[in-house]
Amino acid sequence: MEKKVRHVLGVSGGKDSAALAIYLKTNYPQLDIEYYTSDTGKELDETYELIVKLESFLGKKIHLLEGADKSHQNPFDHYYELFGGYLPSSQARWCTKKLKLEPFEDFVGDDLVISYVGIRGDEEREGYISTKPNIQSIFPFRQNIWSVDITTDAFNNVNIALIAKYYTEAAQGKEISRILEIVIKPVSKSFLIENKVKLLLDIDTVLFNKVIYQYLQITDKPLAHVVDFPLVENTDILVKDDVFRILRESGVGVPAYYEPIEFEVDGKKGTYARSRSGCFFCFFQQKIEWVWLLEQHPERFEKALAYEKEGYNWMDERLEDLAKPERVLQIKRDYLKRMERAKDKGKNSKYLMDNLQSEGDGCIACFV
Question: Which fold has domain 5-142+237-250?
Answer without folding.
Answer: Rossmann fold (3.40.50)
